[in-house]
């Protein structure tokens, strides 16, 4: 069964699938219980979102409700031709207008709602009177996703990069090969955030599903760093974003990087940002510094800026690899490795090296029946990378391990690389 939550409506549709043990029917709960007593709410109330723990222990990011709404609202109302509401009453009226006009979205978060991408995009849909449709499997099933789009007439999907996008492409291709097609006529938007979404994957989804692919640059600690948009027939790019209105690229001492200089800096966003990390003032001061009287969110992503203001995302500094004095960002190498036609997924980490300090190692998952060798995979990256970025070691595994939110498990990948004979 598929659970739906919408403005003024909630129901389920039977699909022949079983719910999780202990799940209760929403309508039964309403019928058998009195409504919860109303409590006073404040814009200072907190929503705490825990980070994925990609580079360490998860941390609770504290968002004031006012700041969270202030960060999400510019992505909703202006595009629909409305002024951003200033109170809950006017927001409710706009939601009713959206719903009655037939423009309210039907949103499927393909990633878990505990992940910022799934939650934030679903909240955006809900505040304008839309409906949220959640998947039932405990693990991502791309065929189930496409079936749900077809059955529920979904208008938009949120995903987390290639970990979701590639299986979605494979499911479409498998359906076509078997003579089946999904009715995706209701779908017009796929939004991704959180990890790299490769250009070939975006381009294929845009063309095959006939949708607009929006790649947003954000994190648990801040939204609106940048975005890119690709439609059918377009020329999708990887890790290139139009800079957000309150975004800057700063050096580690807070100086703004000059566009077109080629200098690397850290992405920073001001405005509606979190208060900090729950019970961690030291990490809060590091991630949310103040420069020239302006408080920023600086999660640690490195980038360069072109003369036209376009951001070229390099990667998270905390997982960068220092090899022979050169800094290598894993995401760039992962993208190059995944360009090999036999590679399904890849994670790149640094491993100890006597000569260079660290060496680039790629942990790779191959497609069924592939006979590609580690040397062939490494050599194929030469067309995309400088020589010092080429993986010196390639470890082939049965499956790359990721979190349920699609985030990279760098600790697992490093352990696998260290446990395997390094060539």
Describe this structure in words.
The chain has 423 residues and is an alpha+beta fold. It has two domains: 2-32 and 40-244, Rossmann fold; 320-419, 2-Layer Sandwich (GMP Synthetase, Chain A, domain 3). Helix content is 26%, strand content 27%. It has helices spanning 26-32, 65-72, 88-101, 116-127, 142-152, 162-177, 199-209, 281-287, 330-338, 374-380, 410-419; strands spanning 2-6, 9-13, 46-50, 60-64, 106-109, 131-134, 156-159, 189-192, 212-219, 222-230, 240-243, 247-250, 265-269, 276-277, 290-291, 294-295, 301-305, 310-316, 321-323, 326-328, 343-353, 357-366, 393-397. Helix 5 crosses helix 6 and helix 6 (162-177) packs across helix 7. The N and C termini lie far apart (49 Å).
Quick recap:
The chain is of the alpha+beta class.
Keywords:
423 residues, GMP Synthetase, Chain A, domain 3, globular, three-stranded antiparallel β-sheet, alpha+beta, Rossmann fold, 23 strands
Main beta-sheet strand count, sense and barrel state: 13 strands, mixed
Largest beta sheet: what is the strand line-up?
2-1-6-5-7-8-9-10-11-18-17-13-12
Average residue-wise pLDDT: 88
Tell me the distance between the termini.
49 Å
* Count of strand segments: 23
The best one-word shape is: globular
Q: Which stretches of 5+ consecutive residues score pLDDT under 50?
A: 1-19
Percent of residues in helices: 25-40%
For the record, the CATH architecture of the largest domain stands as: 3-Layer(aba) Sandwich
DSSP helical segment count: 11
| Alpha-beta content class | alpha+beta
Rg of Cα set: 22 Å
In the CATH scheme, what's the topology name of the largest domain?
A: Rossmann fold
- Give the amount of beta strand, in percent: 25-35%
What's the CATH first level of the largest domain? Alpha Beta
């Amino acid at each position: 069964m598929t659970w739906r939550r919408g403005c003024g409506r909630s129901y389920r549709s039977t699909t022949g699938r079983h719910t999780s043990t202990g799940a209760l029917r929403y309508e039964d709960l309403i019928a058998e219980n009195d409504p919860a007593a109303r409590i006073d709410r404040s814009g200072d109330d907190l929503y705490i979102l825990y980070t994925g723990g990609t580079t360490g222990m998860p941390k609770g990011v504290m968002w004031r409700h006012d700041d969270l709404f202030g960060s999400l609202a510019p992505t909703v109302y202006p595009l629909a031709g409305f002024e951003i509401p200033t109170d809950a009453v006017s927001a409710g009226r706009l939601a009713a207008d959206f719903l009655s006009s037939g423009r309210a979205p039907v949103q499927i978060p393909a990633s878990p709602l505990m992940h910022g991408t799934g939650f934030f995009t679903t909240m955006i849909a809900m505040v304008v009177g839309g409906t949220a449709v959640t998947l039932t499997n405990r693990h991502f099933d791309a065929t189930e996703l496409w079936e749900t789009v077809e059955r529920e007439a979904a208008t938009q999907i949120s995903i987390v990069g290639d970990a979701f996008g590639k299986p979605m492409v494979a499911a479409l291709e498998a359906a076509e090969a078997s003579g089946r097609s999904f009715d995706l006529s209701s779908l017009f938007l796929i939004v991704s955030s959180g990890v790299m979404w490769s250009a070939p994957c975006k381009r294929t989804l845009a063309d095959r599903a006939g949708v607009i692919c929006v790649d947003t640059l954000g994190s648990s600690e801040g939204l609106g760093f940048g975005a890119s948009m690709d439609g059918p027939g377009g020329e999708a790019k990887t890790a290139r974003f139009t800079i957000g209105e309150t975004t800057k690229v700063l050096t580690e001492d807070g100086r703004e990087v000059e566009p077109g200089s080629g200098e690397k800096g850290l992405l920073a966003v001001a405005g509606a940002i979190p208060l900090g990390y729950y019970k961690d003032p030291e990490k809060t001061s590091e991630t949310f510094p103040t420069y020239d009287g302006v408080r920023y969110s600086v999660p640690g992503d490195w980038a360069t800026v072109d003369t036209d203001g376009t951001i070229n995302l390099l990667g998270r500094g905390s997982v960068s690899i220092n090899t022979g004095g050169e800094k290598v960002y894993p995401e760039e190498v992962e993208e190059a490795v995944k360009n090999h036609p036999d590679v399904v997924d890849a994670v790149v980490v640094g491993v100890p090296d006597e000569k260079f300090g660290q060496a680039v190692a790629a942990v790779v998952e191959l497609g069924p029946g592939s006979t590609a060798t580690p040397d062939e995979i490494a050599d194929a990256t030469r067309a995309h990378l400088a020589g010092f970025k080429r993986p010196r070691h390639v470890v082939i595994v049965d499956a790359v391990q990721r979190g349920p939110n699609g985030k990279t498990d760098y600790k697992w990948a490093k352990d696998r690389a260290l446990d395997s004979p390094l060539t």
